[in-house]
């Protein structure tokens, strides 16, 4: 028998698994649980099971300021067992990659842009000067190039090239002497960062703005900076050989035959820009009659890997011998394309695998050239933020903060790190150490001995 309870007390009595509220009056009423409109379970989700590794040390990196955020920002590099990092006090610091111990500190007011070459770090100050410091932390020279918004520093031979929009500066890598500066008309020239040097000629890629924005090439004398020639509608050279420059021509809105398609490669004299010949790699596409646009960002894409010239031709992709061209020549190999619609080629072949990035998910995939099989190299549980490939290991940072390492060939997990962050930047590796970059922070991971 249930005894009466004081009127000011409201409680529940448990009978079996049913909770019965008791009101002040002592009466009892049963309240049923609310039913879900839909209740679904997924027991087939992917879960990565691997040893958990913890960082052996960590360090803070510079926080990028709004006036310096570009696609080419650099705040850390790994070389020769050392980490060169820009700290929050805008000083450059060298650390032992294995221990995190500071080796030296250099400068002040430095910008998040520097590179390493032949034992020297070349970087930019916030005021737009270029500096050189050797691996021991000793300053070699400084050059006032006045390019505070520079987006790329690159050493080619004995010259450092610095690009900023329509400007290009050449500086002697040993002495710091400014060789020359070139400036293009800004109303029709938007600078890109790609620069190459061959046969005494510097080639730079740019965007020409007008009714149609298209890529082009500008050529300069490497000693004087004198402009030699330019060519619109040309992509960065595929190759330079025997004084000839080979470049794919952008034919968009010039030759858009949807059925009889081709990739056009123009051949120029590298010193004069004179057109010396053209190559046409042709194929026939299926006519689109339903009016539905097939995105397929690969169709017509082409790239050169050594002597192998790969072209994506609709439902197939092919390989030509680039250095044995003939007008009616046939591909030396053809594959049926199993690549998904949103998989964009990275124009790179590694370990007999053609690499792709999915534009929706950002994931890395590989097409095995031996079998034509497409393999997803990101096999984690959550969306991928950052993917890096070193050797045969894929490193993948997820939006849930987990960072996985997989064997690229077997897809077996190797280790996992719980970083506690959703944000990742490109990882660094030197020797047996991996540097995970997340939220302006370095996390140093000692790699298992199985990873070379």
Task: Give a written overview of the molecule.
Among the domains are: 1-33, no CATH class; 52-183, Lipocalin, CATH 2.40.128.630. Residues 1-20 have low confidence and may be disordered. The strands form ten sheets. A four-stranded antiparallel β-sheet has the order 3-38-37-36, with no helix packed on it. Strands 4-5-6-7 form a four-stranded antiparallel β-sheet, with no helix packed on it. A four-stranded antiparallel β-sheet has the order 8-9-10-11, with no helix packed on it. 0% of the residues lie in helices and 50% in strands. By secondary structure, it is mainly β. InterPro entries: PQQ_b-propeller_rpt (IPR018391), PQQ_rpt_dom (IPR002372), Quinoprotein_ADH-like_sf (IPR011047), WD40/YVTN_repeat-like_dom_sf (IPR015943). One of its GO terms (molecular function) is protein serine/threonine kinase activity.
